[in-house]
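Reading a protein record of the kind used here takes only a little practice. An example makes this concrete, so a full record is given next.
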Amino acid sequence: MALFTKRYHTPGTLPGTLAASACETPPRICLVEFGPEAYEERTLASPADCLSADECRAYLDSPSITWIHVEGCVTPETLQHLGGLFGLHLLALEDVLNTGQRTKLESYEDQLFLVMHLPVRNGAGVEAQQVSFFLGRNYLISFHDGETDPFEPVRERLRRRAGRLRDRGADYLLYALVDLIVDQGFPLLEDYGEEIESIEEALLDDPDQRVLGRIHGLRRELLLLRRLIWPQSEVLRQLLHEDYASIQDQTRLFLRDCQDHALHILELLESYREMTAVMLEAYLSSASNRLNEVMRVLTVIATIFMPLTFIVGVYGMNFGVNATSPWAMPELRWAYGYPAVWAVILLIGVAMLIWFRRKRWF
């Protein structure tokens, strides 16, 4: 399972230092310019390709909304260029480059810097992909360190002019992207619900070490999800209740709904964590019961053989050389002594089995 892996500088490095990270996913930059009546979309190899200083000022002075999305591993050169064009704070740029940051919201003069985490489940478990946002008066810059673009549904809504996106500001676009990140928890929880049902069936049928491993893996993934969702709900609370000039009042109503989704996911997560705790207790109880069953069967067998061992031990004493003595075993001179001893052994064994069965000891 992929836990938080933060890339960081060597202790003592100058704050705001942008250093290249070891990443193989090349960056892809998508520029979207939109308004109520216009929509323009371009894919850039680098921000310097078509974003000069003059063009940047034209975008900032335009009433339309500019959205720049950087997908993949962003380079220090890309961050420096975008930071210079849009006046992004150097410490925030460092947090974008050093992924694995905690979910947080920072205010820098006329900008908001927001760090979120997109939960993605793969074959190795659940992975937290960092998504960073810079929100300005009429622009939004987003960074995602994954291999695939998670915001294509929002971009498609902009193309088709579905909903309010084209008629609202950059803060509403930020809400749409944050809402997509938060709602990503619902399909994950649906998968976890199905897995919990599967584990419960396995617990009833044949609990073994593989079931125990699945329970522990599920508990670790749910713990990581809680570490992702809980601070995101706190950040949404900040956006709702604190006074930020970049967030309009009409957008706060939608952010409230987004926070409700986050709280709903948190409640489901807590329920699933309690269910996994109950399943772990059920597994331990089942393992203990199975051990008790084995010990009970072995105890019954040992108890039955105790008198039988005593009988064969007595008649295993070799006193045949003194057969004429009045103290010798009389059965040694009896023609039916051997089958009589076997009959007594079988009778005692069967009688004990019947008695144990009536006592419900096995």
The domain at 28-285 is CATH 3.30.460.20 (Beta Polymerase; domain 2). DSSP finds nine helices and seven strands in the chain. Residues 189 and 288 are 31 Å apart (CA to CA).
